[in-house]
Amino acid sequence: MTVRTAITRITQHERVNFVLTNRLPRRWLTLFMGWVSRLEYPWLCRILLRIWGLFTVLDLSEARKTRFKSLQEFFTRELKEGARHIDPDPDIVVSPCDGIVGEMGKVQQGSVLQAKGFPYTLMDLLEDEELVSNYLDGSFVTLRLASNMYHRFHAPHDCHVERITYVSGDTWNVNPIALRRIANLYCKNERAIIRCRLRGSQHLITLVPVAAILVASIRLHCADVLLHLRYRGPNHIPCDAHLSKGEEMGWFEHGSTMIAFAPPGVALAPGLGHGSVIRMGQALMSIAGGA
């Protein structure tokens, strides 16, 4: 049995995994990880990546470069030109990021599923009654970014980013084990709420990147601030950014979750399934009747 196999067996045990990733001091571990990840010592980065490689497979075949001076540079790495194909169909809303499809479906009576038997309300997550009203009888999809995935996210369509709302919160792990145990987990965690008005159709797509343990830093190119645990406001950040489909919006500094909400008239793309892996640029939703 290899060291990686032994570690995987231990960490996949549900109770052990939950204790190790949630019952430790989450905030301080996250702040410490942020500090360590910014240290620019290539030798230290190589050591830490070797340790990280015991827990997951690190595939750099698509990365623009394979040598890094810090963990932050590794986690926010760019891809080679042409590594992702952006669906050009104007009726298609593409996935803003790489991810594993979690819960998905219709918004029912203002609520959606976090995990089987664990619903949460859009009001608790978005904290804006007018914004919530856009998604009654609409659709949603949750994408989980594993730590070894590409961490940058992109515009899902030609759009106008008109507002960003930052909500301070906790840093619970967002893996399936925690989602089955902690009610309203996404509503407890730190998150950003990004309103994207689609060009042409005027549909409002809202993206919600959610922070987690070890990752509570979200960088958005259209906001001149780094959203993290020490950020103190303003919570409502005006924005006036016009982006083309597939244009980079920002990045997570480790890995986390992206939740996308669509109003009636924008449906989930056929072929999406729980647990399936989707890449940035692939079809996530489709606009009924065309844009």
Keywords:
291 residues; 2 domains; four-stranded antiparallel β-sheet; 9 helices; 17 strands; 22% helix; globular
Which value, in Å, is the CA radius of gyration?
Answer: 18 Å
Q: Assess the beta-strand content as a share of residues.
A: 25-35%
- CA distance, first residue to last residue: 54 Å
**Number of separate strands:** 17
Return the structural class: alpha+beta
Largest sheet: 8 strands, antiparallel
Helix content: 10-25%
Low-confidence stretches are 16-20
Dominant shape: globular
Q: Calculate the mean pLDDT score and round it.
A: 81
What's the helix-strand series? Answer: HHHHHEEEEHHEEEHHEEEEEEEEEE
**What number of domains?**
2
Q: Tally the helices: what do you get?
A: 9
**Strand arrangement, largest sheet?**
12-7-8-9-14-5-2-16
Account of the 3D structure:
The protein is an alpha+beta fold and 291 residues long. It has two domains: 3-75, no CATH class; 92-287, no CATH class. It is 22% helix and 30% strand. It has helices spanning 3-11, 14-22, 26-38, 42-52, 71-75, 122-126, 129-133, 176-179, 185-188; strands spanning 92-94, 99-106, 111-115, 118-121, 139-144, 152-154, 159-167, 191-198, 204-210, 218-220, 226-227, 236-243, 248-252, 257-262, 266-268, 277-278, 283-287. Strands 12-7-8-9-14-5-2-16 form an eight-stranded antiparallel beta sheet, with no helix packed on it. It has a four-stranded antiparallel beta sheet with strand order 6-13-10-11, with no helix packed on it. A hairpin with a 5-residue loop joins strand 10 and strand 11. The longest helix has 13 residues, at 26-38. 39% of the residues are buried. Mean pLDDT is 81; it is low at 16-20.
